[in-house]
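Exam revision sheet. Question 4 asks you to relate a sequence to its structure. Input first:
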Amino acid sequence: MTYLGYDVLELNYDRLAAVEERTTRKAVLLDPGTGKRTSDEQAPSGAGVRPFTWTAFGRAEIAQVRAFLEARKGMAVPFWLPSLQWDLTLAEDVEEDATIATIEWVRYVQQMFGTTGARRHIALWALGNSSMIDAYQVVDATDPNDGETESLTLSPAAVRDYNAAKTVVSFLKFCRLEDDLADVSYLSGNVARATIRVRELPLEAPA
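Answer key, structure tokens:
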């Protein structure tokens, strides 16, 4: 699957342990030695780095891992990575061809929309079936200031019905590999495990 011209990594990667994500952000700290210290954040968003493990069973899946890694050309070619977690929650069902999705209020408009393109892309998928992911761009967002819901305008229009109770709304993160080489170990002739580190590119994500 491709989205806005880039590959989407569609996989339910292993959760062998808690995923640790480290975020860096360009900033300058002014420390006069005495008195108050002040900081100047020079980037509108931090860039997170996280590892994940991709276990492939059978030669077809192993070939898929190798093909994906080779297509990245090390750190050169970016891709989309869904977080595969419940980042936003639908407040009501979304019907096919609808362009508005109503979510539970999380200060999305205040804190996420508009700063960069990083949180303007979402993946919708049915709970328990992450093999069928639909990608959307949030082209507008409104907050009625009732502390209950917010509205997202989606592009394209919804390609299917989404049940609010059974649909996971994940952020679709624009990433590159953090390393030119990924560690792939073969547990047997038909089982391979790749340990991959990725860096999110919030300032490069299409707005």
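Marking note for examiners. The chain is about 10% helix and 40% strand.
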